[in-house]
Design a protein that fits this description.
Length: 211
């Protein structure tokens, strides 16, 4: 019997690595906990957020463009767009630099990789992307997991939310950034985010569905 060639062995390693990195498409057969599917949006839905450093802003869903969800960010009378995948992962912002000279437009290619539906406790996934903010270009790897389904209280109220913990590693640097997202199906969005390393946090103040 002929021995496997080198390329067959290499292909096996690649497939094994991909299997590890690919997130589960559905919960295990014996899973009986809550599951969150991709949210469906209607133009006009509005979320209001607050941040201790910059105050509040609104996020308004305006529709789809090129298969991406478009949310209009309204901050201090200025508007610009944030584009997300159907899984709600960020792809890019448009018009931030024009509206605010002190910030830059941002882009994640192909996207930031978080979140990834369906969500269920115990789900893990990995992802890589290129993140650009102005002249800063970084290769990043993501190691994410749904750690819990828990009650969380924010200014908008108390929600049952999936707690997503993320290790966000900039390639070439030893230290990683750690992020925590709380996604609430009833709000169809994140109700809280926190990262000490990125020095950013936000909470939902109000969710206004369309009538």
């Amino acid at each position: 019997m002929r021995k496997p060639t080198l390329w067959v062995a290499v292909l096996g390693l690649i497939l094994a690595a991909c299997a590890t990195a690919m997130p589960a498409a559905s919960p295990p057969a014996n899973y009986s906990g809550p599951v969150a599917e991709r949210p469906q949006y209607t133009p006009g839905e509005r979320w209001s957020f607050t941040n201790p450093k910059i105050g509040g802003w609104d996020y308004v869903y305006t529709g789809q463009r090129g298969g991406l969800h478009v949310f209009q960010n309204v901050y201090r009378g200025k508007t610009f767009d944030w584009l997300h995948t159907p899984d709600l992962a960020l792809v890019r912002s448009e018009g931030r630099a024009r509206a605010h000279p002190d910030v830059t437009d941002r882009e994640a290619s192909p996207n930031t990789g978080v979140p990834h539906f369906p969500l269920f406790v115990g789900k893990r996934w990995q992802d890589r992307h290129t993140y650009t903010a102005g002249n800063d270009v970084a290769q990043r790897s993501i190691d994410a997991s749904v750690a819990a389904y828990e009650q969380i209280t924010v200014p908008a109220g108390t929600f049952s939310a999936f707690k997503i913990e993320v290790k966000n590693q900039r390639l070439g640097r030893e230290a990683a950034a750690y992020e925590t997202y709380w996604y609430a199906p009833d709000a169809k969005f994140f109700v809280k985010y926190f990262s000490r390393e990125f020095e950013w946090e936000m909470e939902l103040v109000r969710y206004q569905p369309t009538k």
